[in-house]
Amino acid sequence: MYKKSKFNKFYYEENEIFLFNSFTRSCIQIEKDKVEIIEKLLDNNKEYIDQYADYYNTLASNGYLVNENIDEVSVLEYFYYSNYFKTDQMNIVLVPTLKCNFKCPYCFEEGFKEESIENKNYFICLRKFADKNFLNKRKIHVTLFGGEPLLKQEEIFDYLEYLSNQSKHYQYTLSTNIVTNGYLLDSAIFDKLMKYNCISIQMTIDGNKDNHDKLRVLHDNSQTYDIIMVMNPD
Fold first, then answer.
1. pTM score over 0.85
2. Which of 3, 25, 137, 215 has the maximum number of C-beta atoms within 10 A of its C-beta?
3. How far is CA 77 from CA 71, 73, 74, 89, in A?
4. Rounded Cα gap, residues 92 and 142, in angstroms
């Protein structure tokens, strides 16, 4: 028997409705006239389960419904502590620059504009750190953060290539992810990221085009939504 997940959340965006599960990260779009059906299925209404078995199975297979004997909070705690105390894995967050090509009014890093405050030996230090600390690791995961990390794409990909070669010698698995505003992301950069086992690309979109282009603009006030939404706009 199933019960609905504690991590389910309905989101309403203009005329679109989504059901998101923050544990499995599953997200499905729901037609307006199907919302009541989904709610009934999540509440295990037998009449609806019999009538909409396919919907019910889809909810269960994507984590919106879980076995009634499962304590989801305990499972989450287990995953947290098992990852936190692992010694054969290392997750590192790289901030190669605090500069950004956007000037979002709410950004907490807005004051960091001068390149002179950044460490010119950043990637040299990172290589030395990798040489010393990545031996005997089973997995290395690198998160690229900023500022806008793709402003330093040449240095980043040189470093990732260094790690890729090192991983074959040290025998660890390398994976990456990136948090970017998406403006500089094109198909060529996407392919490079995939080369280094990029498992996620997080881009921030501030609502619809009108809302986004009021806030997330370049320093010359140029709009960015259309560039971000089209891969390789050239």
1. no
2. 137
3. 10, 6, 5, 18
4. 5
Closest to 12 measured CA to CA, from 31, 25, 37, 38: 31
**Domain spans, the chain:** 2-72, 86-229
Per-residue pLDDT tens over the stretch 160-186: 999 999 999 999 999 999 999 999 999
Q: What is the DSSP letter of 232?
A: S
Contact 188, 232 (CB under 8 A): yes
Residue bearing tokens 């939404």: 229
HSE-up (13 A, CA, CB side) for residue 113 = 7
CB atoms under 10 Å from CB of 49, counted, come to 16
Q: Which residues pair with 202 in a beta bridge?
A: 179
CATH top-level class of 86-229: alpha beta
Residue type for position 58: T
CA dist., res. 27 & res. 98, Å (int)? 32
User: 3-class DSSP state for residue 191?
Assistant: helix
First to last CA, the chain: 52
Average pLDDT over residues 132-159: 95
Give the CA angle between residues 146, 186, 165 to the nearest 5°: 70
The C-alpha atoms of residue 29 and residue 12 are separated, in whole angstroms, by 10
Query: Which of 46, 41, 52 is closest to 8 using CA atoms?
Result: 41
Question: Residues of the chain with pLDDT > 70: what percent?
Answer: 94
